[in-house]
């Protein structure tokens, strides 16, 4: 895991966690916007490092590594914690760890309910196929990525991730991210924003959002009709920033 930072370390802290197969650079505009008033930390999560290979063990392992960094560099205090997809699952885990306080937690498309094993196996095979073909620079896969997954400017970063990713990490990510997650009451989180779309597998996030609000009444749910998983942040980042800043009352 690597950490990228923006802004003045003396400011309040914001932590931004990317999703699976998504480069940390997906947060560049958000980090630029927030860095005027926040010390922004963007981890390059394990199995997603560009300069050299790294290996994913579990969501809990990722959360612990980030916690250790926050304890050392921000006294365990996070003013804004944002997680996209897999990063949302990690953020939800991090927020529940002892000695960490989170003022504002933003979860976008976070998968926080278990998924049947046969579906996990299908996803494993699909992701392994995508990674293998991406390593070979298969034109059809790359075109599909640009159309449905990431904007074209992010593809070179994604390919660096693909080149370094091994199949064991894919297995561990799928098993960990889609395992059972017990949503508990966050005593150390002041406010929660749970964002999700309506297309495809966003039904998983919708279910998690409702459960989060049942247990944590400080949760606000924002549903973006017609949007697929992670589409708002990945393809319309300025709109995503506006939504979050509106919720924060930050202008």
Mean pLDDT: 94
Distance, first to last CA: 31 Å
Order of helices and strands: EEHEHEHEHHHHEHEHH
Determine Rg (CA atoms, Å): 17 Å
Strand content: 15-25%
Structural class: alpha/beta
- In which order are the strands of the major sheet placed? 1-3-2-4-5-6-7
State the main characteristics.
single chain; 251 residues; alpha/beta; 7 strands
Question: Care to describe what's here?
Answer:
The protein is α/β, with parallel strands linked by helices and 251 residues long. Helix 3 links the parallel strand 4 and strand 5. The longest helix has 19 residues. The radius of gyration is 17 Å and the shape is globular. The protein starts with a strand and ends with a helix. The model has no long low-confidence stretch (mean pLDDT 94).
Short précis:
This protein is α/β, with parallel strands linked by helices.
List the helices and strands and how they pair.
Layout lengths: L1 E5 L5 E6 L10 H7 L3 E7 L14 H16 L2 E8 L1 H10 L5 E8 L8 H19 L3 H10 L6 H10 L2 H11 L11 E9 L4 H14 L3 E6 L6 H5 L1 H12 L3
Parallel strand pairs: 2-3, 2-4, 4-5, 5-6, 6-7
Antiparallel strand pairs: 1-3
Helix pairs in contact: 2-3, 4-7
